[in-house]
Design a protein that fits this description.
2 copies of one chain form a homodimer. By secondary structure, the first copy, chain A, is mainly α. The first copy, chain A, contains 11 helices and no strands. The N terminus and C terminus of chain A are likely disordered. The structure holds a DNA duplex.
DNA sequence: TCGAAAATGTTCGTCTCGGTTAATTATATA
DNA sequence: TATATAATTAACCGAGACGAACATTTTCGA
């Protein structure tokens, strides 16, 4: 009774009553579950609601994912993996350190903006004290690769003599992440109180430039001050 | 059967089997509910669990607070009000703008560290798209007062000619809040992946100094560069 | 072509959880 | 002291949610 697949044509599918397509079913479930968990949290999400928005049934969710927490864990992993894909396309090793850092900050900022579901899932994980993230080696590896990019930039910046010697890659990563993350995670409360002026596109560009300046400024040796990134058009 | 009050002596209370003390009961419920909501989120919190950790019963929670969401809302307000009390003791108007800003950043950073439950409740609010915050005028006022402090500093800094003319108080507030907030809110995931090195007290001091430098640096006119805050002892 | 295994459909049990009802005890006040 | 009202208790309820049992269909290799 189900038309599961989205990539294949109907003619391939509807010869009989329904066609099996485990991979598509899995992906479909994961897609919907991501939205639901991001929207309602772990305990707030109803398995029946996920099933309803899926092209398949609740039965299949348990068949493939065991239980709610298993599903949640896999959603988390899939989301991290997707984020990683984007990150890897960044070619920072070729750029001189300051430009590489600028590019990384811009990317991180935009990336969080473009993946609000990811941000929300991480928020939820934090509420749960990173309980599920803790069990996933995949996610750990993913984040390691993120910090390695920063470490490489730091090393090169210090070699070139443009970065301060006491720059700490981990703190730098913290610095970048904090603003990129907060900008998405706390938008509801912030804009509820102060209005959403900061989230019109022009102001977001300004904020991004502010972040770039703040981050780059914090690692540069105080003598060599670069021209600031463009503040507004 | 209940010993409700903590401030009064037993002799005042236990003359008979139990003594009524509505205010103490309310406070007790709020105290426990704050912990529970902060720990498990809105839908994750069980009313029965709150009741169990309270000196009173589940029935009383409904008696005083109506329902779960009503309780949650009052928890939120009470927490904001408590936080506000601390904030107002800051005397920034007396200080020259740069020092005032430094002091404000240090305070904000420490303040978030010292009120993790508050931070967690705000996270939860954001997950719920600030649904409950929206209904509370008290909370709105509290945040307004926070931004006014920043606006005053900005105005004076620009008058004195040490701040750049394009400094935006709202962005500055965003800038400060982002790091102070993230430092607490995302500690679980961050330290799960990268270790908790950044949260030993010495490194927290360094981070705080980094934040001060980044924030102050972003508002100063580029010519007049102040001595950086102490990086480590 | 046949049968086993994988995938899906259908239905139901059980337990949790938010919220309520009815009865009991303390307090205030006249 | 009597009585109305506020505070408190214990038991209970119905909805709904997770997950499992059982049945059926599809696929694929021997």
């Amino acid at each position: 009774m189900q038309k599961i697949d989205e990539t294949q044509t109907d003619s391939q599918l509807n010869r009989s009553r329904w066609k099996q397509n485990p991979d598509a079913v899995r992906r479909d479930i994961l897609r919907v579950a991501t939205q639901e968990f991001a929207a309602h949290g772990l305990s707030g999400t109803r398995m029946a609601n996920i099933a309803a928005k899926t092209k398949t049934s609740k039965r299949m969710i348990y068949y493939y994912f065991g239980d709610k927490e298993g599903l949640y864990g896999q959603v988390l992993e899939a989301l991290y993996a997707a984020v990683r894909q984007g990150e890897d396309q960044l070619d920072l090793a070729m750029l001189p350190p300051v430009e590489a850092l600028q590019k990384l900050v811009v990317f991180t900022f935009d990336h969080h903006c473009q993946h609000p579901d990811f941000v929300r899932l991480v928020m939820i994980e934090n509420i749960h004290h990173a309980k599920y993230l803790r069990t996933s080696e995949i996610i750990r590896q993913l984040n390691k690769s993120a910090i390695e990019k920063v470490q490489d930039i730091c090393r090169r910046g210090q070699q070139d003599g443009v970065f301060r010697d006491d720059v700490d890659a981990l703190k730098l990563h913290w610095h970048i992440s904090s603003m990129a993350f907060f900008n998405v995670s706390n938008r509801p409360t912030f804009s509820e109180v102060f209005g959403d002026r900061l989230w019109i596109s022009e102001e977001q560009e300004n904020l991004r430039a502010l972040v770039v300046d703040a981050v780059v400024g914090s690692v540069l040796k105080s003598n060599a001050k670069l021209p600031t990134a463009k503040k507004s058009k």
